[in-house]
Amino acid sequence: MSERTKPQSFPVFLHGHGLKYEIECILKAFVPAVRFQFYYDDLSLLKESVRFAAIQLRPGRACTYFYCAVSLGGKTLRLAQRTEKLYPQENKQQCETIICKMLFRLLQELTGLDVPWGILTGIRPVRKVLPLMEEGLTQEQIYDTLRRKYWISDEKLNLVYETARVQRPLLQQTPKNSIGLYVSIPFCPTRCSYCSFVSHSVEQAKKLMPEYIRLLCKELEIWGRMVRELGLIVDTVYFGGGTPTSVSAEYLEQLMQAVEKNFDLSHIREYCVEAGRPDTITADKLAVLRKYGVDRISINPQTMNDEVLKTIGRRHTAEEIVESFRLARSFGFENINMDLIAGLPSDTPESFHRTLEQVLALDPDSITVHTLTLKRAANLFAEGASQLDNPVREMVRDSIAMLPENGYLPYYMYRQKNTIDNQENVGYAKPGKESYYNMLIMDETQSIFGAGCAASTKLVEPNGMITRVCNYKFPYEYIAQFDQLMEKKQQVYEVYNRIREQEAANAEE
Ligand code: SF4
């Protein structure tokens, strides 16, 4: 392993504050594949460190002093700044912005790298644009505000603005008192090498499957009762995982019957199933989906390069993806999404370009371009080192140019921690084919009731407060502790009581 690729720890000294999260995000953008070691109010190791970042905040009598020093590649740079009196607890946001900008400046000078999202570290960039649109700011004013505040590049500003422009009128149509229902099937035929989800191989989970499906149907019955008692409207249904179609047609039918029996589906605007891997798509399963009103499916090639498919541990070819897509169309599915991943191991910009061309030739209704995210497993740092030269930026750029040229507009976007080159994930759709569930999960303005293991329930109150109720991650835990898990659902009543009180108070005003 060369010096450059050797995983090393990087000490970060914080003095006078504990603003770790944002600092770590900025550091990661410039110095990937490194384990950051944080020290609080202890500079004793500073002198011994070959490379380090030190960020000090000191409120004085009339003002606050900020100091930032970074040492990297044998060079040390420092910055100091004095502001009005600020305290890290009371003025967290302001302090964070000042610190991030100082750190960013030093890292940029030391590395010469260009970080397109600037100091914006949140996972929902569109939410920075929507409120400015609500305030009535022009496009130019929005660009100016975001450029000044976060130092975002024009390329990303265009992308996030366009995404917000497309999704804003769609979000405004969200029915009052509505929820999204998420059904989790956390099984896959095999595990892809890059997977960071909790997914279990169907083979291994075979024995657990009948009991898992039985209890999932029971949970749907419990949710159905709650939805009725609380007078809620089911707006979208989403079967995700894993790969929901990795279970048999009979199990799918059992689950869809449970959804149909326990919920009033007369108001739903979208019923989506992640058909995910083409090696799980069969005529009998597609027939079940059609029978129960599924109107959007996702067939996810990730790449159309057979060699890359092999490298990531997929047991199917690009030709099988084409066959599955055509089979789904022949069953009358008029809203098919295809997921791609930029930056997969062994992929190249040329091959990614060909993937885009091949997927466009199929004419799906939406295309989602993810950027490879490093797994959170123990080998993250070793894995990260091998990704230092990943040409992902070129691939992402290609998709940003090519998809709108072909009639697909960006309509939802999110960023993830540990994504290669700090890039984003973007859903592009033909007008009218956008997924409401995807937009609303990112906008966090609609509650989601999650059923099944690894599903999380997100309860959104009108004041923006969010309560999460999480199910166990593993099927055996879900099965063994099902009753205790269902007791946790009492929280839902408590939250909805609060929601009703807030609504009543708002109505009185
Ligand atoms: S299909 Fe998706 S969820 Fe399943 S193993 Fe691959 S990446 Fe993970």
Notes on the structure:
Helix 3 crosses helix 5 (154-171), helix 7 runs parallel beside helix 8 and helix 12 (349-362) packs parallel to helix 14. This protein has helices spanning 20-30, 92-111, 126-134, 139-150, 154-171, 202-205, 209-229, 249-262, 283-291, 306-311, 318-330, 349-362, 380-385, 392-405, 436-443, 475-480, 482-487, 490-508; strands at residues 9-15, 35-40, 52-59, 64-72, 75-83, 178-185, 187-188, 200-201, 233-241, 270-276, 296-299, 336-342, 366-371, 409-414, 425-429, 447-451, 456-460, 466-470. It folds into four domains: 9-111, Double Stranded RNA Binding Domain (2-Layer Sandwich); 126-169, no CATH class; 177-195 and 203-295 and 435-509; 303-325 and 342-432, no CATH class. The protein is an alpha/beta fold. The chain starts with 8 loop residues before the first strand and ends with a helix. The chain contains 18 helices and 18 strands. Mean pLDDT is 92; it is low at 1-7. The structure holds iron/sulfur cluster. Iron/sulfur cluster binds at residues 188, 191-192, 195, 197, 199, 241-243, 276-277.
Q: What's the quick description here?
A:
This protein is α/β, with parallel strands linked by helices. Helices cover 41% and strands 22% of the residues. Helix 1 packs parallel to helix 2.
Reconstruct the topology from this structure.
Elements: E1 9-15, H1 20-30, E2 35-40, E3 52-59, E4 64-72, E5 75-83, H2 92-111, H3 126-134, H4 139-150, H5 154-171, E6 178-185, E7 187-188, E8 200-201, H6 202-205, H7 209-229, E9 233-241, H8 249-262, E10 270-276, H9 283-291, E11 296-299, H10 306-311, H11 318-330, E12 336-342, H12 349-362, E13 366-371, H13 380-385, H14 392-405, E14 409-414, E15 425-429, H15 436-443, E16 447-451, E17 456-460, E18 466-470, H16 475-480, H17 482-487, H18 490-508
Parallel strand pairs: 1-2, 1-3, 6-9, 6-16, 7-8, 9-10, 10-11, 11-12, 12-13
Antiparallel strand pairs: 3-4, 4-5, 13-15, 14-15, 17-18
The structure holds iron/sulfur cluster.
Iron/sulfur cluster is lined by residues 188, 191-192, 195, 197, 199, 241-243, 276-277.
